[in-house]
Amino acid sequence: MIGTALIQPNPFNCDAATLRSLLVSLLDEEEPLAAGNAVFRSRAVALIGTVAPVLVWVREHKGIRIDLQQSHFAMQMPNLRALAIRRVFHVRAAVSHAVSAIAVPDMPGALIGPLHAYLHELPDFDGRLAGDQQPDHPTRMHFRALLILAHAFAQGDAATRPA
User: Fold this and answer.
1) d(Cα 121, Cα 15) in Å, to the nearest integer?
2) Which end of the chain has fewer CB atoms within 10 angstroms, the N or the C?
3) Could you tell me how far CA 136 lies from the centroid of its own chain?
């Protein structure tokens, strides 16, 4: 084994329920951003539950590598809108951060429907309006949930990086 790198399995190569549990486990209930923000924490959990099956589907059907950074990127508002409304999945390259758009017209409606539901649960969200024409309120509501996730994911990412 001299000269061979130790290959660690990707914990994101799992089914949707396990991926959801893995991502939710990163949300520390004692986290200052989550403490006292039960509404936004529950939105973050709902967002994870909505996106986890989508991530598994794109991994299985489009060969997209899923990791913590791609999971977080997929949950950003422009990417959710692109997927829910235009059936386009955005992928960000790990090193260059270049963004690629992958058409997913064959993604089952059972995966797209929860994305629509999540977006339409945001107050004042209007799927007919372009992202820059949306009122600020739905974006702020989503941003608060995403902020809790970003902090948790950053801590999880730091814990999984080699020293």
Assistant:
1) 26
2) C
3) 21
Distance CA 152, CA 74 (A): 15
* Beta-bridge partner residues of 88: 103
For the purposes of burial, counting CB atoms within 10 Å of the CB of 109, is it exposed (0-12), middle (13-18) or buried (19 or more)? exposed
Secondary structure element (H or E) that encloses residue 92, with its range: strand 88-92
Q: Does residue 120 surpass a pLDDT of 70?
A: yes
Work out whether strand 88-92 and strand 99-103 pair parallel, antiparallel, or are unpaired.
Answer: antiparallel
pTM for this prediction = 0.78
Q: Which residue has the tokens 């060969």?
A: 63
Closest CA to 75 of 121, 115, 124: 115
Of the candidates 39, 61, 162, 150, the one whose C-alpha atom is nearest the C-alpha of residue 108 is: 61
Mean pLDDT lowest among 16-20, 30-34, 48-52, 119-123: 30-34
Rounded-to-integer distance, Cα 140 and Cα 61, Å: 32
Residues 89 and 58 sit within 8 Å (Cβ to Cβ): yes
Dihedral sign, Cα of residue 96, residue 73, residue 99, residue 140: negative
